[in-house]
Amino acid sequence: MIIAITNFQLPKPVTRDEARSIFLTTAPTYQGVKGLVRKSYVVADGGNSVGGIYLWNSRAEAEAVFTESWRVYVRGKYNSEPSVTYFDSPVTVDNVTNEILSDA
């Protein structure tokens, strides 16, 4: 599995409630995305940056979403250049489903 962390530095800080409202407008677009196990939206203390933490089945499936058109969309929505950092995640503990997930 792969974890991708996106980050957008904002030109003007947002409150948690403002960020939540923005996130709710895009959340439905991530439902049913091929290879996406889970996405968490995040806002930094002080509201100067926002982003997402994604758990993917594979890097190829993540890269299929984080395309140049996705970057153009982010630039337009947040007035910010997005960054994406990838991490290999061989094991994930899920306490909601009481599972230990492994890509082996």
Short description:
With 104 residues, the protein is an alpha+beta fold. Helix content is 28%, strand content 37%. The protein starts with a strand and ends with a strand.
Describe this structure in words.
The protein is α+β, with helices and mostly antiparallel strands and 104 residues long. It has a single domain (2-102), classed as Alpha-Beta Plaits, CATH 3.30.70. It contains 3 helices and 6 strands, in the order E-H-E-E-H-H-E-E-E. The model has no long low-confidence stretch (mean pLDDT 94).
Protein traits:
37% strand, Alpha-Beta Plaits, alpha+beta, 6 strands, four-stranded antiparallel beta sheet, 3 helices, two-stranded antiparallel ribbon, 104 residues
Mean pLDDT: 94
**CATH T-level topology:** Alpha-Beta Plaits
* Principal-axes shape call: globular
The order of strands across the largest sheet is 2-3-1-4
Integer tally of domains: 1
Helical element count? 3
Beta-strand residue percentage: 35-45%
CATH architecture, please?
2-Layer Sandwich
The tally of beta strands, per DSSP, is 6
Structural class, please? alpha+beta
* N- to C-terminal distance: 9 Å
Largest sheet: 4 strands, antiparallel
Low-confidence stretches: none
Radius of gyration: 14 Å
Pattern of helices and strands? EHEEHHEEE
The CATH C-level class name: Alpha Beta
How much helicity do the residues have?
25-40%
